């Protein structure tokens, strides 16, 4: 059995975890996600359509949204997302809005979180994507808008860790939500992201002054962000304690290679992959969907079940060329898409678990100590001993919501740059 057969089986294994008790069950990507053709050009954030979401619980307002955004080349494109609001009356001025940028779910259209946010899938201690990432904010009285990212939901070039694109998608989802919400949503805004979404929210904060100057966020919250891509890649190749698990590193590298190839004309994924497994994996990973870390874990479990693991270990060098041999244009793109290229004139909170094996916390200690603090940013970093990559989302919920509410009340944020965070 070749790698493509193995991973295609893994895709079926992972897709089965999503549940099927909704009217969209027979449609991997519902018709809602097909944009008008041709797409009438409109300003970024302009609303194309809205629609209901199967299995939405009572007591909330939930709808899928399709809106205009921009590609890496500045071309108009349709993108999608999810807008959720509390069911009761809003406070004076409307519900404050959280732009919640999600972590890795894949790059294919079917991987959009807005397609089945309420369906059964286990993430950390949560029973659905909504429970994991949105519910606590809605329960606390916030409206939440989550961009799917370009290429997920509506068709388009892949955008995994393409910072400019994902940042634009996040900001344009805010513009769309405020248009759709009318008097229900206020102009108070918090940018929030986890993992891949930490990069997306960070990029949204960095480009907002130029791309969406009318939007004024009161704070930025980054949960275990993919901030320093070069450091993450270097650690993945080094392996061992303190590095991303090899299984997850392989998945993330494939998603990034395919996305960068789509976004930068001078880049070819074939320049990075090796023969035979590396090449075989390219078409497979265009279709793999899972929550952050789930694709790698699921594939690895399937390999174990089939008895392939001893003969086919999931190591970075089995699929990709040596990091020292990366062509310079690829290294330039990796550095270009790391956070820290622009200043952020908004208070920032970073939270991360010390037992994170997906994004090593050491890379974000470096981002905090060597990038944010020297730039004079108002940033607070809380490290959670014993918490994992996904576990910190739940563990830090109280801190994140309290921090956001204090920013909305106009209370001054603090910085702990003078006392750098650490893990036991």
Structural features, described:
The protein has helices at residues 3-15, 129-133, 135-139, 163-181, 196-211, 229-238, 246-263, 277-284, 294-306, 328-336, 361-372, 391-395, 397-408, and strands at residues 47-51, 60-70, 76-86, 95-101, 143-147, 185-194, 217-223, 348-353, 379-384. The protein has 424 residues and is of the alpha/beta class. α11 links the parallel β8 and β9 (379-384). α1 (3-15) runs parallel beside α8, α1 (3-15) crosses α9 and α4 (163-181) packs across α5 (196-211). The protein is globular and about 60 Å long. The model is unreliable at 1-23, 293-298 and 308-312 (pLDDT under 50).
Order the strands across the largest sheet as they lie in space: 1-2-3-5-4-6-7-8-9
Structural class per helix/strand content?
A: alpha/beta
The largest pleated sheet is described as:
9 strands, mixed
Order of helices and strands: HEEEEHHEHEHEHHHHHEHEHH
Per DSSP E runs of 2 or more residues, the count of β-strands stands at 9
Give the N-terminus to C-terminus distance in angstroms: 44 Å
**What is the tally of helical segments?**
13
> Whole-number average pLDDT?
88
| Helical content band | 25-40%
Strand percent estimate = 15-25%
Q: Low-confidence segments, ≥5 residues, pLDDT <50?
A: 1-23, 293-298, 308-312
* Cα-based radius of gyration, to the nearest Å: 20 Å
How would you sum up the global shape? globular
What oligomeric arrangement do these chains adopt? single chain
């Amino acid at each position: 059995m070749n790698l493509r057969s193995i991973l295609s089986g893994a895709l079926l294994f992972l897709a089965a975890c999503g549940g099927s008790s909704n009217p969209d069950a027979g449609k991997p990507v519902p018709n809602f996600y097909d944009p008008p053709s041709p797409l009438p050009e409109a300003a970024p954030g302009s609303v194309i359509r809205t629609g209901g979401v199967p299995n939405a619980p009572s007591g909330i307002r939930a709808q899928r949204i399709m809106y205009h955004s921009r590609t890496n080349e500045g071309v108009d494109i349709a993108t999608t997302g999810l807008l959720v609001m509390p069911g009761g009356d809003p406070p004076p001025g409307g519900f404050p809005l959280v732009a919640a940028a999600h972590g890795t779910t894949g790059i294919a259209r079917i991987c959009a979180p807005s397609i089945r946010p309420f369906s059964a899938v286990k993430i950390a201690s949560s029973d659905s994507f909504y429970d994991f990432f949105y519910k606590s904010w809605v329960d606390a009285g916030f409206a939440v808008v989550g961009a799917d990212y370009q290429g997920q939901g509506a068709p388009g070039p892949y955008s995994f860790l393409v910072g400019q694109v994902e940042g634009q998608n996040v900001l344009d989802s805010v513009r769309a939500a405020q248009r759709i919400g009318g008097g229900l949503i206020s102009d108070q805004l918090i940018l929030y992201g986890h993992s891949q979404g930490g990069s997306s929210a960070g990029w949204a904060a960095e480009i907002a002054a130029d791309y969406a100057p009318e939007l004024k966020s009161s704070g930025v919250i980054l949960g275990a962000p993919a901030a320093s891509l070069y450091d993450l890649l270097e650690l993945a190749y080094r392996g061992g304690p303190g590095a991303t698990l090899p299984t997850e590193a392989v998945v993330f590298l494939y998603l990034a290679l395919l996305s960068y190839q789509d976004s930068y004309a001078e880049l070819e994924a074939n320049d990075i992959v090796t023969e035979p497994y590396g090449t075989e994996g390219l078409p497979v990973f265009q279709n793999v969907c899972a929550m952050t870390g789930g694709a790698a874990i699921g594939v690895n479990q399937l390999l174990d079940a089939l008895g392939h693991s001893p003969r086919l270990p999931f190591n970075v060098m089995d699929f990709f060329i040596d990091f020292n041999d990366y062509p310079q244009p690829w290294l330039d793109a990796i550095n270009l898409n790391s956070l820290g290229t622009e200043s952020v004139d908004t208070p920032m909170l970073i939270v991360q678990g010390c037992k994170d094996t997906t994004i090593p916390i050491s890379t974000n200690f470096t981002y905090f100590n060597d990038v944010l603090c020297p730039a004079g940013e108002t940033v607070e970093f809380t490290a959670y001993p014993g918490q994992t990559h996904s576990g910190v989302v739940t563990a830090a919920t109280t801190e994140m919501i309290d921090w956001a509410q204090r920013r909305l009340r106009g209370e001054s944020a603090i910085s702990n740059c003078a006392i750098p965070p650490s893990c036991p």
